[in-house]
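Hello forum,

I keep getting stuck at the same step: I have a sequence, I want structure tokens, and every attempt I make locally crashes halfway through. Rather than fight my setup again tonight, could one of you with a working pipeline run this one for me? It's a single chain of 429 residues.
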Amino acid sequence: MSKPRFVISCPFDTYSGYGARSRDLVKAIIELEKYKVELLPQRWGGTAWGFCNDHPEWKFLMSHTCKPDWNKTQPEIWMQISIPNEFQRVGKYNIGCTAGIESTMCKAEWIEGVNRIDETWVSSNHAKKVFESTIYDRKNKITQQVEGKLKIEKPIHVVFEGANLDIYKKIPSSKIKNINLDQIKESFCFLFVGHWMQGEFGHDRKNVSLLIKAFFETFKNQLNPPALILKASNGVSSYMSREDLLDRILKIRKTVKGNKASVYLLNGDLTDSEMNELYNHPKVKSMVSLTKGEGFGRPLLEFSLTGKPIMVSGWSGHTDFLHPKYNFLLPGKLEKIHPSAANQWLIAESSWFKPDEPHIGSSLKEIFKNYRKVLKKTTKQSQHAKNKFSFNKMKKLISNLLTSNLPYFPKQVELNIPKISLPKLKKVK
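Reply #2:
Ran it on my machine without issues. Output:
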């Protein structure tokens, strides 16, 4: 019996966050063995291609690439892993998949995109809430009179980004072969992972600038202070981007008086296994992030599997999987997105999170000074993540959604007409 064609348009072969999300979703759907999966490769901004050829464990995806004439017949199922304004109806049943938005509102074009298709999968309850709470007036294009409301009319389902427990897990120091932090003299390091993108001081989305300033201020003039490692980039990995980030760090350092603790920049691409070694390195004691908003927060989930402490803003996507009893979720308030950080998708009318600054310093000190006590609490986060947010749990959720929501697709059956033996007629003389 033939399987329904499942064509997925996604940036699976790119070095990007959406590329990683695409590969996991596609792998899960292929492993269900219920569908004939075909992949339509897409770009993702300016990120590089060739991820699958560079990573042998993912080369199998290339064999699923669509043939040039893939659209001569309509696929039963179409999935598009992208931002919602790009969603299109191509299949008999159409699914959109997006990480969603990091602030409190999305653009009207995103609502229209979600409503164009049959259902949408988002990475977190935060993203689902933002989509469902964003409502615009629908105006007549000529008279500008309000004719109704533009709001979500199609189903939205939360499909979290499951962690690969074969890669991300607690490992002993003897298993760390590829990550060498000998140049770091400190034995206690906080780790940040993420992009340092546009926005004035205290307004870039990951809030890297405020993190650095708060770290300098918290541990200045202290004997044997901890260090901060930034596994960061400005969107590209190059000599120029590294120099740009080093210059930003130096400018912040100059604003703080007194003896400063060390901040180290780790710039460049690491494999999943190397990232897990970094997370487990004995010098890396805790992950920190003052993020203003996350659609999900994948590095936070993957790091949490080590059981080490995490200090992070207590708002948006990562609060789905970071248990409040086992982590340091910082209090704060919502504030309007600063004009320097706003762009075509992060709209100035929306808001995101500003962590409470006194709590930043007190939490950093608590983790540093009472590490053994803190660790007894945070090790429980590892089991929480394993039990509820693994790749296999994600695959099971996907299977249940597809089984429940996909319609019946009539199958083309070859018509077999039985042969009839006709009686021989005698010739009439």
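The chain has two domains: 5-159+390-405, 173-388. If your local run keeps crashing, start a new thread with the error log.
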